[in-house]
Amino acid sequence: MQVWCLIVRGAVYRAHVAVVRWRAAGWRAGRGVRRLQWRVSTTHVQLIAAPAAAPVDTPVQITVSGLPPAGLVTLQAQAHDGQGRLWESTAQFRASQAGTLNLATAVPVSGSYHAADAAGPLWSLRPAFTSDPDTQFRFTGSAFTVRLQLLVNGQARASATLARLWSLKTAPTVQTVSRDGFASTLFTPTRPGQVPRP
User: What superfamily would CATH give domain 46-167?
Assistant: First the structure.
């Protein structure tokens, strides 16, 4: 009888140890999930566009950090011309393994332009209100604003704004150029110290 009780108690003890170990494993697993959720939730995507306000012919720098490694992301740009009409551009990129993106060196996978160029989102703006290729961006006032928005899996994760300024020193010379049956409008920026063309 004593032997049987010892065996039963031993079995109960082993079962208790197994339950304790199972609970400990579950706690560690739960803690691991909580840590993973914390890391994911605190991942911060940062979009930097600089200089934030500068003459229209100033080179721009656009960089992104905190992206999914090698993930596909979309950069959208929107601006309104002097008549309040919407212009926009879109480009899709693949982030680096470090989760970063530099538009000066990144070639778009698809979108409004297809070459590495930090100013690509600006010069590739197209009218959202018409498909007429002859439509021109109308300038009024001394500046226009471009809003940049970064999307990951279709969700907006970061945004930035660029203000492009016209001034007496940087206002461009505008002239129509015609040659070999083609006509175009040429905007020539005026550099400091340069006399504007008539």
Answer: Acyl-CoA thioester hydrolase/BAAT N-terminal domain (2.60.40.2240)
Site of tokens 């001394």: 142
Q: Is the pTM of this model over 0.70?
A: no
Residue 63 pLDDT > 90: yes
* Number of other CB atoms surrounding residue 178 within 10 Å: 8
Phi, psi of 40 (to 5 degrees): -65, -45
Rounded distance, CA 153 to CA 55, Å? 34
Q: How far apart are CA 92 and CA 111, in angstroms?
A: 6
The one-letter code for the residue type at 76 is Q
Neighbours of 100 (CB within 10 A): 15
Exposed / middle / buried, residue 1 (Cβ in 10 Å: 0-12, 13-18, 19+): exposed
Sketch the domain layout of the chain as residue ranges.
1-42, 46-167, 169-198
Cα–Cα distance for residue pair 198/195, rounded to 1 Å: 9
Average pLDDT across the chain, whole number: 77
Look up tokens 């720098």; give the residue. 61
